[in-house]
Design brief:
The protein is mostly beta strands and 161 residues long. The protein is built from 2 helices and 13 strands; from the N terminus they run βββββαβαβββββββ.
């Protein structure tokens, strides 16, 4: 998030895959301290661009209060996320299971966008693993069964074991 103006307004940059005003969204969760999500209730929201929304949050009425929320991670409930994200967006793969050569490697816990590729974060045998999702590794996406089928380079998973 970024602060905007002097009355505590914020700009939320999102990767929901579609333009949205977040109409009907009551609250967001902000990671103020690493691992600690605090709810903030939305007073108003309006579209700024395809990937940005102007937000006014209850209790955030000054530029100083808004600055404290700048550069913080914002989270939605699973239900709200599904409601507002585009079905074709890469971020909609959260919760899908990563299938490598017929083996279920676990649920996708996070999608990390980088300039030249997307990474899916999974828990592989108790350790964090980052799996590239690009045209060479991505075999197919099975939305019905919530699966992402990939062909991984030999030895990639050994790095995380």
């Amino acid at each position: 998030m970024a602060s905007f103006g002097v009355k505590g307004d914020l700009i939320l940059q999102h990767h929901l895959g579609k333009k949205t005003s977040l109409k009907g969204l009551e609250a967001i969760f902000v990671e103020v301290v690493k691992g600690e999500m605090l709810p903030y209730f939305i007073q108003s929201a309006k579209i700024k661009s395809d990937e940005e929304v102007y937000l006014k949050l209850e209790g955030v009425d000054t530029k100083e209060a808004a600055v404290k929320l700048r550069q913080k991670e914002v989270w939605f409930t699973q239900e709200d996320f599904q409601k507002f994200s585009a079905k074709s967006s890469i971020i909609s793969l959260l919760g899908f299971h990563l299938i490598d050569d017929g083996t279920d490697r676990g649920a996708i816990l996070e999608i990390i966008e980088q300039p030249h590729q997307m990474l899916a974060r999974i828990d592989l045998e108790g350790k964090e693993a980052l799996i590239p999702l690009h045209e060479r590794s991505l075999q197919k996406i099975d939305k019905k069964n919530k699966q992402v089928h990939v062909i991984l380079p030999d030895g990639l998973l050994d790095v995380y074991r």
